[in-house]
Q: What sequence folds into this?
């Protein structure tokens, strides 16, 4: 089973950009579909985006569509989330999650492995 470590979070002004990374251990990373979720203070964890194992397809939450782009480099065992035109409401802890089997895309229950999270704060 892979292990996931997120990085790239930080403080940015509204309208700015950040790129999050999710580095995975293990030699079978390309077999995993990977998602980003986020959890804002006082709110439940919410789906952001998912990418299939070989990056054939990506799915985005409506709230980030057109602003965020998810990609992966299986040779580097890394998944990325490029976040542009950030808004204060994007402030949250961002988690990457992975699943080996097909399953729920937009639910936490669809993923078996989770990273520890990285904080993103967008100031107005």
A:
């Amino acid at each position: 089973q892979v292990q996931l470590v997120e990085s790239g979070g930080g403080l940015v002004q509204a309208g700015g950009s950040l790129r999050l990374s999710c580095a995975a251990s293990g030699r079978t990373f390309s077999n995993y579909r990977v998602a980003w979720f986020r959890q804002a203070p006082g709110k439940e964890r919410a789906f952001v985006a998912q990418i299939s194992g070989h990056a054939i397809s990506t799915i985005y939450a409506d709230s980030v569509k057109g602003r965020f782009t998810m990609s992966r480099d299986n040779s580097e065992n890394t998944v990325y989330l490029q976040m542009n035109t950030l808004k204060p409401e994007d402030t949250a802890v961002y988690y990457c999650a992975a699943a080996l089997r097909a399953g729920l895309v937009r639910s936490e229950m669809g993923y078996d492995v989770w990273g520890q999270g990285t904080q993103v704060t967008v100031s107005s």
